[in-house]
Amino acid sequence: MSALLNVENLRIGFRGAETCTVEGAFFSVHSGETIAIVGESGSGKTLSCRAVMGLLPPKAEIRGGSAAFCWEPGAAAPVDLLQMSERKLQRLRGDKISMIFQEPMSALSPLHTIGAQTAEVALLHGVSRRAEAKRMALEAFERVGFPDPSRAWSAYPFELSGGLRQRAMIAMAIIGQPKLLIADEPTTALDVTTQALVLNLIKQLQADTGMGVLLITHDLGVVANVADAVVVMRKGRVVEAGDAGEVVGDPAHGYTQKLVAAAPKMAPKPAPITSLSTPDPILSLRGVTRIFEERRSGLFKPARRFPALRGIDLDVPRGETVAVVGESGSGKTTLARIALAADRPTAGTVRFRPDAQREDLDVHALSRKELCAFRRSAQIVMQDPFAALSPRMRVREILTEPLEIHRLYDQAERRARAADLMRRVGLDPMMIDRFPHAFSGGQRQRISIARALMLEPQFLVCDEPTSALDVSVQSQILELLEQIRRERGLSYLFISHDLAVVGQLADWVAVMRSGLIVELARPSALFAAPRHPYTRALIAASPEPDVSRKIDVKAVAAGAGEPSSWPEPYRFDGERAPELIEAGVGHFVRAAA
After folding, report:
1. 3-state secondary structure labels for all residues of 361-373
2. What superfamily does domain 1-96+180-263 belong to in CATH?
């Protein structure tokens, strides 16, 4: 049977450069088949797939090769996508071929609601009635796991979390039931339970419609669970290709072996089983509640209120790492923002003690001058380093800016400190006068870490610092963070949705759902004997690079469902929830006594 898509000897270069960025790439996708293209940042995997869609950057050009596409294999002659006009390609995009982009914030229009953008796809490709397009959009929102599809319909992109924006992108891609789906890191911003359900959804769509999937990813756990075949790329060339079980289970090329070895596994950092209570927490949250109000949908309709956090009690022991894990919308980032005084709680207190010998500070009662001093002691590493770093500033300016704001040291000392930190985070100080776009994703994250360390803080919030990085770079960043913590005695609040990543770094893990901590324990105890059904779902949904360990979708669905569907004594409905009780030494779970 002929392939749905067959790419041969693809060569892509940039104007002014003699060498090709992609040299001789090849892969093919059959109906109902999933092909994964794996490689580190800059390997050419995304560029190759964008060429198929006719969406190359302005200065990129195709210098050779073919991409034969046949949406009805056996019934019609294939067409070469690389030779098609823009007008003909527009007819295929969104209808016969869809693409899920890696960065939803840049792919979605900020001026239109999520519902309008999703329904537009259906209207452009055959649906004549707006009511039918809306019905299809709401159905797609429900299938990709939106907790409230009607709210998603009227929301703008900036009103949704990163994970929910990614779900919207997936809904837009599948609403037209394409023959070929190109998914560029489709689950990077998703929590593991939603990732498992979305990947299962794509597999169901394949079974129902015969859709082929071209998956671009750096997550070998995802590859092991969904891919039929794997293409490994490095520096624009295919270095290994074959059956997923063989490539992941017994890689032949040295580069593939390194990727498999670097993939995070569920192996928690060893730590003694002790109580979390400490006489010297650097950060202490008590009864922290945050309630948001939505925009009014009508002149006389009251604004809807929903709690993002509900009475959170949490301590961060000095010199240790407390990880907060949970799905998008669980309240993780809101908790981090309140801890850093970037947002105010509706109720509750946040107390910070920069030094064990000093009195603690009520973070949200500080004066402007005191708040400035507090921010010297508490810094953040953001999720998206490209968005966090100003494209108009050189790295030297980015690193020295905090010192200038706080009026610390003279110009020569600032530059010396910036160069020293570049060296400490594993970057060449000779690159300090470049702009952020000249660095890879992993290098930009190292720059973000260096900037956060410029003021020599004692407390660092890491908000999904490795979620957008390929596995080899992710491993390096985690090692760097752990090394810095040991050298400087830092305390971390580490936000993540990946338990495998958390296990390598955390001393304590707090699992959040619906604005509540549902389980809190040492990672070794949590992984070995999870108590709460949602924690069990997180562990069951965590993919590992092992084709024999498939994700148990039923176990994931059981724990990732609504709290009202959980078994007793964990079940709760509405705002009433069981208390967080100590079920074992240093192991807390939210359950009825």
Report:
1. EEHHHCCHHHHHH
2. P-loop containing nucleotide triphosphate hydrolases (3.40.50.300)
The answer to whether the 1-96+180-263 and 281-543+562-590 domains have the same CATH topology is yes
Q: In DSSP terms, which residues pair with 103 in a beta bridge?
A: none
Which residues, 6+ apart, have CB-to-CB distance to 282 below 8 Å?
316, 317, 318, 352, 353, 354, 458, 459, 491
Task: Give the pLDDT mean for 256-272.
Answer: 77
Q: pLDDT tens across 79-100, in order? A: 899 999 988 888 888 888 988 8
8 Å CB contact between 337 and 309: no
For the chain, the structural domain boundaries read 1-96+180-263, 281-543+562-590
Mean pLDDT of all residues in 568-577: 84
CATH number belonging to domain 281-543+562-590: 3.40.50.300
Nearest to 29 by CA among 215, 153, 207: 215
pLDDT above 60 (res 1)? no
What tens digit of pLDDT does each residue of 517-559 get? 999 999 988 988 999 999 999 888 888 888 888 888 888 878 8
**DSSP letters for 311-333:** EEEEEEETT-EEEEEE-TTSSHH
The Cα 251–Cα 40 span in angstroms is 16
**581: which residues sit within 8 A by CB, 6+ positions away?**
588, 589, 590, 591, 593
Contacts with 538 (C-beta within 8 Å, 6 or more apart), sequence order: 191, 192, 193, 325, 499, 511, 530, 559
pTM reported for the whole predicted model: 0.79
